[in-house]
Amino acid sequence: MGDDALSGDPVAAVRERFVAVNGDHPMTDADDAYVREHFVEATPAAMEQMLAGRLPLPSYVLSDGTPMVPAAHGELAEVAGGVDRLHDWFVAFWPDDPATAEAEWDHYLSGQYVCLREVSPIRIRMKTARVAEASAAVEILRRDPHDPIGRGMLGQAVDGVLAVPGLDSLLLPMTAYDRLRFGGPSVRETWVDAPRAEFLTPVPPVWPLRTERLLLRPFRPGDEAALTDAWADEGWTSLLLSGTMNAAEVAEMVRRRSRQHDGLFLGLAVEHDGELVGDSVLILQGTGLSEGEIGWTVLPRHAGRGYATEAARAVLRLGFEHYGLRRIVANLDARNDRSAALCERLGMRREVHRRGDFWSKGTWTDSYEYALLREEWRAQS
Ligand SMILES: CC(C)(COP(=O)(O)OP(=O)(O)OC[C@H]1O[C@@H](n2cnc3c(N)ncnc32)[C@H](O)[C@@H]1OP(=O)(O)O)[C@@H](O)C(=O)NCCC(=O)NCCS
């Protein structure tokens, strides 16, 4: 025990231990604010246990000397059935690997588990598993960025799947202070930011796309003129999600679509001979952004000429070849016979007929989900 602890100043004694582990680095105002937001002040009782080596040292010491710990700091001892049982409870999470269990316990006691939003053995194990998964996925995707298994693994590792949290939600960012004590890139930078930028950030293709008769390109201001009549027509919009739109609303839709920059929503204007004849939509979604949802309209006076089919074929190709999608789906009101016929023409499979699940314009209606896998698309093209 240091002099300060003996002289009865536990805050100073804890700081001394903290500096021995982490070095003496300055905390900026931003560090202080961040730590106050995500951590709590250590209680006098907790400080006593820290000095006895039975609870983790602080994660941070604020520039005014206040020792700060994760919110779960004392709770885990309670869960374990008392601080005396904490060690045995903790290492039991690695029943087959005592060396890792003890190494994790030491790291836990050091207080340096600051990358985790919630410091607990179960979260430590999750982080280890997700990092291993991300690392294996990156290796696969470096060989083939469209590999479906690699995309699934990376999607789960980074973003999680349903109740399985990914690293993005498990990890906290690194502070300037952390950079001084740990150096190097953080786990978050290495296993969330870098793989997301390299493999999970859609890169748009070179516009426009051209087909035999059509040209597909992002929307631009001015496109609203061709769309206004169709969007004012109750019959034409009856089976769409949205209702009719007036001229100002259509202009606003065009303005928003022409500024979609996250790359996940592609709203494309479809032209024939320089005239706008409809639109095609592709939304990138799902684990590892490996699924797309496709949508379409053709303006009433251009219907019945195969334009929607031709544009959709180009969008399917874009999805599977350029974005490396594994599966593309279409969701529609089951009363939309023309849209269902279009799905069938595209070789999509009706996978789901949902009964009365879809609330649309004052009534519950059935809906269909059509789907096409990449290998099915390849086999038919
Ligand atoms: C759904 C919608 C896009 C389908 O439009 P569509 O005109 O039936 O589809 P296409 O443009 O592909 O045209 C296909 C028709 O053109 C015919 N055609 C003519 N020349 C063709 C060609 N060169 N290639 C293919 N088809 C051709 C086809 O035989 C088919 O006619 P049919 O339905 O009488 O058999 C359209 O009804 C629409 O915009 N509806 C309102 C909005 C909407 O509901 N959108 C869908 C929401 S899920």
From TrEMBL:
InterPro entries to which the protein is assigned, alphabetical = Acyl_CoA_acyltransferase, DUF6058, GNAT_dom, N-acetyltransferase
CDD domains registered for this protein in UniProt: NAT_SF (cd04301)
For this UniProt entry, the molecular function terms from Gene Ontology, in alphabetical order, are: acyltransferase activity
- Kindly state which keywords UniProt assigns to this record, in alphabetical order: Acyltransferase, Transferase
Q: Does the keyword Acyltransferase apply?
A: yes
Q: What EC number(s) are associated with this protein in UniProt?
A: 2.3.1.-
Where is the N-acetyltransferase domain positioned along the sequence?
214-375
The yes or no answer to whether the keyword Acyltransferase is present is: yes
Kind of enzyme, top EC level? Answer: transferase
* PANTHER family associated with the record: GNAT FAMILY, PUTATIVE (AFU_ORTHOLOGUE AFUA_3G00765)-RELATED-RELATED, N-ACETYLTRANSFERASE DOMAIN-CONTAINING PROTEIN
Kindly provide the name given to this protein in its UniProt entry: GNAT family N-acetyltransferase
